[in-house]
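Lab notebook, bench 4. The sequencing result for the construct came back, and we need a structural model before the next group meeting so we can plan mutations. Quick request posted to the team channel:

Model the 3D structure of this chain.
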Amino acid sequence: MEVYAYAFLKIPTVELELPLGIGQAVQLVPGKQICAVVEFDVDIQRLQGDDALLVQAIVAHDRTLGELFPQQCLLPLRFGTLFRSLQALQEHLITREAEYLEKLDRFVGQGEYILKCLPRPEPEFEISAEVRGKAYLLAKKQRYQVIQAFQNEQSAQWDWIRRQVTECYPQAIASDLEDQSHRIFLLAPIQEEPLLYERFQEWQQTCSAWELQLGDALPPYHFV
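Done. Here's the predicted structure in token form:
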């Protein structure tokens, strides 16, 4: 019987509040020092054949990790991670134990934060319909110059944001989206969250051509 896995974590020293997973409450499968958060009877093929069910399952996967993460440091697994049997999972936990212990020690007390950088729209520069001839050409030139200056400033501000984040959080990962916005994934100590928000306010004040959004602490999805 296949086993659906959500995460790996050290065997808890206190009882955890195990949340509802995709269809039922999750369980812990122990190895020696590492255990897996799992759910049985998850039919991935059925979920992948129905878009609505698939979305619900993905949301449930992330919610489950989000409810476990504040209780104990964990290594999150991608949606759809399956082991062919309970025995295969336990063998995996024992074989990879040293690697997972090292990662868990490295990530303890750390959270992944997502900084979204959304470009603000270009300034409006309307040309009156009454403008004609050379005055119209001059107005078009001025509009081009204003927009070009804004775009240059916006680009320079993005370079500045990326440098600032990388200097403060060297493991940060930046990604570009199709709509010209950006995301930066950064790893930071959860206890230093107030400092992160102070820096976030400084970044926003300095970069008026961007709207910045900072998410809450998540499991280290992009750093495992």
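Residues 133-168 form the longest helix (36 residues).
Will bring this to the meeting.
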